[in-house]
Amino acid sequence: MLHPEKFVKLGIDPPKGVLCYGPPGTGKTLLARAVANRTDACFIRVIGSELVQKYVGEGARMVRELFQMARSKKACIVFFDEVDAIGGARFDDGVGGDNEVQRTMLEIVNQLDGFDARGNIKVLMATNRPDTLDPALLRPGRLDRKVEFGLPDLEGRTQIFKIHTRTMNCERDIRFELLARLCPNSTGMN
């Protein structure tokens, strides 16, 4: 987004979309905000469950309007947080239970197909459950990059403790590494 000419010079297409996946609290949403801040792009965040509507066609209409607004901006990052709420694999349950959710997901796919990777829109999506996403959403040309956000290692957890206690009135001799060892599956969210 900052230097599209570098992609052209190398003869490669920049990614149209990026899927960030991993456990809750590992920094997926924080990354999306940081990218938007770094690029001075307009940042539109949509939580997947907000697109689940009870009236037929409402979710798909919201997606169309969202991308229409994104196209009007100089540069825009559209971030779908918790995309698994609408991007799940399609199935026919015989009673049409998830038809509206599927329409919404198909509209996202349609919108992803409708813009140039070198244009002013980039799409980021985040999920805790990449295994549940529809393969149509994940194919190249839509979400070209997949980035895993794993749990922090011992050093990462130690640094997280230091960051979170920086403004607290704490004892000076706290053994942050010991605390980190006692919390092996913790994230910055805990």
From TrEMBL:
It comes from Ensete ventricosum (Abyssinian banana). Keywords: ATP-binding, Nucleotide-binding. This is Uncharacterized protein. It holds the Pfam family AAA. It comes from the Eukaryota. PANTHER family: 26S PROTEASOME REGULATORY SUBUNIT (PTHR23073). The keyword Nucleotidyltransferase does not apply. InterPro entries: 26S_Proteasome_ATPase, AAA+_ATPase, ATPase_AAA_core, ATPase_AAA_CS, P-loop_NTPase. The keyword ATP-binding applies. SUPFAM superfamilies: P-loop containing nucleoside triphosphate hydrolases. Belongs to the AAA ATPase family.
